[in-house]
Amino acid sequence: MNTRALLVAGGLLVASFSPALADTVTATVADWNATTRTITLDDQSQFANIPKDVAVPDLQPGDEVTVDYLAAEDGVEAYTSITVNRDGAKQLVPLPQKRG
């Protein structure tokens, strides 16, 4: 067998066993359904069936949410964290002016 073909076949085999890739999405919440554990974002994309062992903060429409997850070919393989930042800009405090 050709060495090049063997290397390509081996590379494809290794790639097929590679772990899922970590991904992050930060967007605005349009809806949170606690019963189905589904977050709908402002672009109408959804993170559905979030397992109960993944903590989900009290989400409100308009909240900025960050979802960290492991991506799979057909969607989400696993959720790693979900965080919310409601008042990020309001938390900035100006530094006091130096008097001199």
Chain-wise SSE layout:
Elements: H1 3-16, E1 21-33, E2 38-41, E3 46-47, E4 64-72, E5 75-85
Antiparallel strand pairs: 1-2, 1-4, 2-3, 4-5
Give a brief outline of the structure.
With 100 residues, this protein is mostly beta strands. It has one helix at 3-16, and strands at 21-33, 38-41, 46-47, 64-72, 75-85. The chain has a domain at 20-88: OB fold (Dihydrolipoamide Acetyltransferase, E2P) (Beta Barrel), CATH 2.40.50.
Keywords:
100 residues; OB fold (Dihydrolipoamide Acetyltransferase, E2P); five-stranded antiparallel sheet; mainly beta
The largest beta-sheet arranges its strands as 3-2-1-4-5
Shape: globular
The percentage helix is 10-25%
Average pLDDT across residues? 76
Number of strands: 5
Order of helices and strands: HEEEEE
**Could you name the CATH class of the domain at 20-88?**
Mainly Beta
Structural class: mainly beta
Which ranges are low-confidence, i.e. pLDDT below 50, for 5 or more consecutive residues?
5-18, 89-95
| Distance between the ends | 81 Å
CATH architectural type of the domain at 20-88: Beta Barrel
In quaternary terms, these chains amount to: single chain
Radius of gyration: 21 Å
Number of helices: 1
Tell me the major beta sheet: 5 strands, antiparallel
CATH topology category name of the domain at 20-88? OB fold (Dihydrolipoamide Acetyltransferase, E2P)
Estimated share of beta-strand residues: 35-45%
Characterization of this structure:
- This protein has 100 residues and is mainly beta.
- It has a domain at 20-88: OB fold (Dihydrolipoamide Acetyltransferase, E2P) (Beta Barrel), CATH 2.40.50.
- The protein has one helix spanning 3-16, and strands at 21-33, 38-41, 46-47, 64-72, 75-85.
- The chain has a five-stranded antiparallel beta sheet, with no helix packed on it.
- The longest helix is centred in the first third of the chain and has 14 residues, at 3-16.
- It starts with a helix and ends in a 15-residue tail after the last strand.
- 8% of the residues are buried.
- Mean pLDDT is 76; it is low at 5-18 and 89-95.
